[in-house]
Amino acid sequence: MKAASAFVVESPDVVYSPETIEAHYDYRTTRVIREGGVLKVQPTSTRFTFRTARQVPRLGVMLVGWGGNNGSTLTAAVLANRLRLSWPTRAGRKEANYYGSLTQSGTVSLGLDAEGQEVFVPFNALLPMVAPDDLVFDGWDISSLNLAEAMRRAQVLDCGLQEQLWPHMEALRPRPSVYIPEFIAANQSARANNLIPGTRAQQLEQIRKDIRDFRHREELDKVIVLWTANTERFCDVVQGLNDTAENLLCTIQNTLVPGALELAEQHRVFVGGDDFKSGQTKVKSVLVDFLISSGLKTMSIVSYNHLGNNDGQNLSAPQQFRSKEVSKSSVVDDMVQSNPVLYALGEEPDHCVVIKYVPYVGDSKRALDEYTSELMLGGTNTLVLHNTCEKGVAPVAPNGCTGDTNGHPQGASPMPMA
Amino acid sequence: MKAASAFVVESPDVVYSPETIEAHYDYRTTRVIREGGVLKVQPTSTRFTFRTARQVPRLGVMLVGWGGNNGSTLTAAVLANRLRLSWPTRAGRKEANYYGSLTQSGTVSLGLDAEGQEVFVPFNALLPMVAPDDLVFDGWDISSLNLAEAMRRAQVLDCGLQEQLWPHMEALRPRPSVYIPEFIAANQSARANNLIPGTRAQQLEQIRKDIRDFRHREELDKVIVLWTANTERFCDVVQGLNDTAENLLCTIQNTLVPGALELAEQHRVFVGGDDFKSGQTKVKSVLVDFLISSGLKTMSIVSYNHLGNNDGQNLSAPQQFRSKEVSKSSVVDDMVQSNPVLYALGEEPDHCVVIKYVPYVGDSKRALDEYTSELMLGGTNTLVLHNTCEKGVAPVAPNGCTGDTNGHPQGASPMPMA
Amino acid sequence: MKAASAFVVESPDVVYSPETIEAHYDYRTTRVIREGGVLKVQPTSTRFTFRTARQVPRLGVMLVGWGGNNGSTLTAAVLANRLRLSWPTRAGRKEANYYGSLTQSGTVSLGLDAEGQEVFVPFNALLPMVAPDDLVFDGWDISSLNLAEAMRRAQVLDCGLQEQLWPHMEALRPRPSVYIPEFIAANQSARANNLIPGTRAQQLEQIRKDIRDFRHREELDKVIVLWTANTERFCDVVQGLNDTAENLLCTIQNTLVPGALELAEQHRVFVGGDDFKSGQTKVKSVLVDFLISSGLKTMSIVSYNHLGNNDGQNLSAPQQFRSKEVSKSSVVDDMVQSNPVLYALGEEPDHCVVIKYVPYVGDSKRALDEYTSELMLGGTNTLVLHNTCEKGVAPVAPNGCTGDTNGHPQGASPMPMA
Amino acid sequence: MKAASAFVVESPDVVYSPETIEAHYDYRTTRVIREGGVLKVQPTSTRFTFRTARQVPRLGVMLVGWGGNNGSTLTAAVLANRLRLSWPTRAGRKEANYYGSLTQSGTVSLGLDAEGQEVFVPFNALLPMVAPDDLVFDGWDISSLNLAEAMRRAQVLDCGLQEQLWPHMEALRPRPSVYIPEFIAANQSARANNLIPGTRAQQLEQIRKDIRDFRHREELDKVIVLWTANTERFCDVVQGLNDTAENLLCTIQNTLVPGALELAEQHRVFVGGDDFKSGQTKVKSVLVDFLISSGLKTMSIVSYNHLGNNDGQNLSAPQQFRSKEVSKSSVVDDMVQSNPVLYALGEEPDHCVVIKYVPYVGDSKRALDEYTSELMLGGTNTLVLHNTCEKGVAPVAPNGCTGDTNGHPQGASPMPMA
């Protein structure tokens, strides 16, 4: 079956104009009311109108940590696809593709055709979307290596591909960035040779200037800033510091504290979530969802990870690991809370997450997990996984097993900085 | 959070009477029309009315292969729960439960409460359902062992539990059954000492008589017949034999051939599917769904299984394995067909399924799987699983890791035999 | 082939008398001399005389930490074998055995018979040895539970076996012991209700008195003291404290410091080694030996362990883990140093050892290892292991997968304390 | 520690002359005599004299199946080492080496030096040995591809290495060979385009002529013929056909039947064994040796393999797999027979070996094993392995994880054919 690339919705709820597609949608769900020990369930309906511009914007992407493994690989991936590169490997020539991208390689079911067969379209055919080939990249890095050198240091891509990309990547050079040793691991200081001078306030002003400069120079309609730098240390919420949008703007920072959420709401900006992607953690959420939804009582989850890239080194510092541990541990909570039949209030499985730095394995992330669940009448199910993720990056949508089990932002920056 | 046990729907679409709950539901989906290379998508809506009796019936369950590991364990599980048994194990006393049952241990989200918190109720609180404790069991088996002896042979349950169940199980004795060596493996003949004499027609008449007898003796409102016997050999569709309901009734058989489906439609009977449950195969469907939905191109799936119970021995015969292989292989097809971006027409991953009989492991099923998927730019993801399923049966709903990775019926019998 | 149980050596080098077996043995090896860049190899021969008493002694064993999982299981194992117990399990009756014991279940090749077939005898047929059934047990523990209660707490043995052992174990009660919170993890204080009062010197005197008392009461010829308590914290060598036998006797302690070795030599006492047994670590030594001996260059070894017994809790304290980490890491060093072709001076594989406390898995130790080795021309071999060790103890000889992946003594006490 | 490269033995038992090294060695062992239920053990000693030429011969190697993955990779490996090639990979430049070769990368302990330190020398320093760099290659193949093309088809080596080797490999072209479809899998016929015409007798004569031709043309002192072609079908011993050396020479064949052994003895030629090397099987022999020697009773061994190269395809034919299965199964027998304490006469573990053809994984062999062993008192140890062997060949000595888990010769040809 060939993926259809275009379709028209024939419905009074969908109106096409030359500029926009306007869709009305009734979102039906239920409201639950507790009245004297009885639950009352009432249907509710909300009418949404979605208006989508048919002309996609010229879009720039600025990466924090552009020269890291993720940043350099993402940039290389878009270039390789745009240039339709292919390169030799011992298993034959490989062609650039967007495997692992929800929008480029994922599909959506449109419905049934006359023969009762499901019709699937590529995810990116659903609505007008910017093609990743058209993205314009820029970014910051505390290391001054140009993107070609960064790509070589990352040791992610095949040599034959690196060779072809070299002249294109060489011209790309990260802007100076901000390095605060207390926030990322001290072991990163050897890389830090490309820094913005001055006070924090001056540094902030430079960052804002960089964004305006990029937008203007490249004649962009929009700029997205993505965190792909090292995991920062864990950040407590402090009253008067990062609890409100107003306080946040005085102290300026990039973690997903309440003030950042409030600010995003004020400016009607999306918060992209607090993790660029996911490998083992995503598989865990899928499996725990399956196990508990099946009525099995998962009793222990033990997750061991090791990797040898720069993120691994950064995470070998306790404070950075703490931040990662929090994000990795919480993935189970929702599922446990969804099943009060299996888990009493406050009860939860043993859950242990370990990340170790093992230089030899490089960017080939390894994850070893063990799930033990109780079955009826004292039976147990033990599921053991070993996952090897040899390089690879999901370019646009955060999903699958990507180059970044580790580049964990505590928040995509939603601040209207420029 | 405690699971709420009852709720009321306040909606004009739901009407409660003393006898029934009547619900109207608009099922909205889309129809796709291909017109000159263009896909047209039209919304459709179908109004369903669901009427559910508030008084649950007195329900009998007849198992084909009652004395097998599944049949004896399912019966024991219901008894242990009904009698609220507990028994000592080296890790402390265990209590009977229904872990692994969708209806008894699964939950459903009702909606959000006033604080925006999701409210979950047990699955069995959704609508009036028969409690598994109230099921009445009967069945057939080619082996004459009573259910207590069958339980001991199965080696599934802890000794301390078996001891308490013994007097209750001892009185249960399977009815004589039909043994056709060509349909299940010849290695089963040693068990076959409890057979209905006579011609095929006489045997059929006895089976029908058994069902009527059970219903009458136990004063049952309904009887469900479940196949939990060995996997039968693979069955081709033969014109004039099993292609229509009419032909089927002349030749009578229990596999899910087109005639059986037609007959079920004529009598408005549900077809329960073609597999009692699933262990490795279910995990595979979850993982392949995740991988391909994420845009990863899964290239090879290798699944090795071994087990040491009677099903393992039966499946060591090639024709029975063929039948199992078909059901286990097809699980990937839907996902591959859903993504024409990744897979060209006719392209599919290497997929290999092996089942071996290893007596020592007994009813502890082992599954070893390897999934290899391609990432962007030539990267690969290799996921290796080892799954140990120590005994256990999901009693009512077919799900989770149950005692039967193997007792694969080609069809739950939908025939109005009595 | 049946294991022969007795044999006679007919050789002028072996002389049997009613009391002893006296054997002369020439140990031939080589001496290497470095002379001006050239290695000279000279054969050497040393004549040993081994005299073995034919009458085995009445032997007592005192366990430090008698009430722990190891101590209680070892005692139970000897009792179960001595009493020839059998007990029901769901997989049939089990009989007491000494599987996992080098001396009781291991064999040795005697040589070839007239038909050129190898003849094997049980290890314990080689020379007169004390049968484990004849051992007399006693010991100390900081917890006052009697051995029956300790066995139940350990959750290691099947219920049916525990029941039969109970009256025999109940009468066994550990002597009060010494608890110094700084030396084992603080999380052990909840157990410490059975302590010797007084100063360190008074405690030492009581320990010596206990040994004399045990020997006298049971009319023993010899007493062996075995450490099976928690791993102590890592111990540095301090001049004037534990560096010589003389200093050690003033400060008295039980770790394998140089002073302890010197003292053992002075008294011609064997030092039993610094680890009671081995599970994952033993497998690692076998595999690394195999890999490097085969000329493969092992580049990374990552070992994850988790367990849920009291040792796991003790090891969750950093100082105790440090001690364990040292003993677990050194296993690779010898092999690396044995191959200067593969490893340059100072070069070694990445080696990472993690031990986590996961209460749910109890005494079922889990080990996940990953070995990555380089092959010729850039190929790699990745070996991943998952090892589940469900209870079990090797009673006499330290080997196999035993109940104690964790009860790591830093030294069997060689001190002539009584 | 640097590996010493040369040494001198100073002993009256070792005499160096300009041409030879002559060593006398007393091999001491024991003889066992059964006399009336008593075993008598008598020491024996045999004096051997080993004379080794100090001048290594000019040595040719002829490979049966030269153009296969093993043959082409072995040839490439020797060339890459001889030419001291290095090539780029994404993880940096790699240099040619002999990792995985017992003789080139293995070491041997010479003895202790004056400081009590063990002194290790490379295995190949023990006695004069031909360096693999000096080997001269030739061989036969049923496919006419030259060695460069064969190397590309094999997809084993990195592109950058292949590129440099191409001109050297291109000139090497296998001699026509013999293809008897009944002996290797019919699925190999597509490759068979390079065949010796004529009757079997004429084909044999041509093979003999090839050996003489190679020896003469290259001025070789010795020629070794190695089987590295596909696994042949299982071969029964037939009286009058392959039971004696005489019969064998009339019917001529290359499997390790009794006649071949007799012929080898008559000509004082070594029989190299019946398997070129081993991956999973070697690991199994190491682990089973360890487990049973430790007194653990291994109860089930389940070994699953899959691979995607031509050997995998050949082995997907039942008769070829049978041959492999026999060789893979027997590895456990010796260990089981060595321990009559654990295994009664005739008792053995469940042992199951599966090999599947999964094209996608190519020459990356995957092995999944599960070992279950019984511990004392009903405990069990379950060891699960996943082994990935990414290409690689052990060039001279058969060991380690090599390119040929599959190219199983039933016998290296010991026949004095030329």
Name the features:
homotetramer, alpha/beta, Dihydrodipicolinate Reductase, domain 2, four-stranded mixed sheet, three-stranded antiparallel sheet, inositol biosynthesis (chains A, B, C, D), lipid biosynthesis (chains A, B, C, D), EC 5.5.1.4 (chains A, B, C, D)
Question: Would you kindly provide a written description of the structure presented here, covering whatever features stand out?
Answer:
The structure is a homotetramer. With about 425 residues, chain A is an alpha/beta fold. In chain A, about 25% of the residues lie in helices and about 30% in strands. Chain A contains eleven helices and 15 strands. In chain A, the strands form five sheets. In chain A, strands 13-12-14-15 form a four-stranded mixed beta sheet. In chain A, helix 1 crosses helix 3, helix 3 runs antiparallel to helix 4 and helix 6 packs across helix 7. The first copy, chain A, starts with 6 loop residues before the first strand and ends in a 28-residue tail after the last strand. The C terminus of chain A is likely disordered. The interface between A and B is large, with 101 and 101 residues. Strand 15 of chain C pairs antiparallel with strand 15 of chain D. Chains A, B, C, D: Its EC number is 5.5.1.4. Chains A, B, C, D: It catalyses: D-glucose 6-phosphate = 1D-myo-inositol 3-phosphate. Chains A, B, C, D: Keywords: Cytoplasm, Inositol biosynthesis, Isomerase, Lipid biosynthesis, Lipid metabolism, NAD, Phospholipid biosynthesis, Phospholipid metabolism.
